[in-house]
Amino acid sequence: MKICLIVPIITKTFIDEKNSRERFGKYVRPDTEVDVVYIDYGPASIESRYDEALAVPFVLKKAVWAEENGYDAVVISCMNDPGVEAAKELLKIPVVGPREAAWNVANVLGKNLSWISARGITVLELAQDSEKTYNALLEDGKRAMKEGADVLILRCTGMTGTAKRLTAELGTPVLEGEGLALALAQLFVDVGLAHSKLAFGYPPKKKRTFPEY
């Protein structure tokens, strides 16, 4: 099985060949191949609607490329799920977004859900000091639990790798959307399911122009 993980930014330091198997290993089987691709043009990170809008056309281009090149499923690695529903219209193979995956799994695991983030740390700064990022997430998790949360969801896929430690320290499930999206994509391929084309029908055929890039 081959899953294409589309990273919807141009910064190519979040995931590389050295850390990818460690990052994905607990979510997919060893025989599931996860290939990471970045968009060719767009924002350095997604932290606004503007960033998201810039990324989506290039995400869709990669998604179509993935289906045409024999991938079994597509996952888009951003908790905003940029272009996920549009990609479902374009593709027949399963398309899964981290946000929708984490939200739906969280609703199975608990009753009061909360998104947590590393407050005061930008996306591009997340990896610069991993312990600082972890402590910021820990504090936000404690705040959310004091307010009644029983399941926590990491707000950014750039925080992937911290959930296991946070779950142990906080004593409640902390979810990583990217990994859960990969796990769901693998499950859908295994059981022969994909999104409904009644819900996500193909776009109407008509002329559409795009700039050359």
Please sum up the structure shown:
With 213 residues, the protein is an alpha/beta fold. The protein has helices spanning 17-24, 49-68, 84-90, 98-109, 130-146, 163-170, 177-191, and strands at 2-7, 33-38, 73-76, 95-96, 113-116, 151-154, 174-175.
Query: What's the Cα radius of gyration?
Result: 17 Å
Structural class: alpha/beta
CATH class of the largest domain: Alpha Beta
Distance between the terminal alpha carbons, to the nearest Å?
A: 30 Å
Question: What is the overall shape?
Answer: globular
Looking at how many chains there are and whether they match, the oligomeric state comes to single chain
Number of DSSP helical runs: 7
CATH fold description of the largest domain:
Rossmann fold
Estimate the mean pLDDT confidence. 94
- List the helices and strands in order: EHEHEHEHEHEHEH
Q: Per DSSP, what share of the residues sits in E-state strands of 2 or more residues?
A: 5-15%
Strand order of the largest sheet: 2-1-3-4
CATH architecture of the largest domain: 3-Layer(aba) Sandwich
Poorly predicted segments: none
Count of folded domains:
2
Tally the beta strands: 7
Largest sheet: 4 strands, parallel
Helix content: 40-55%
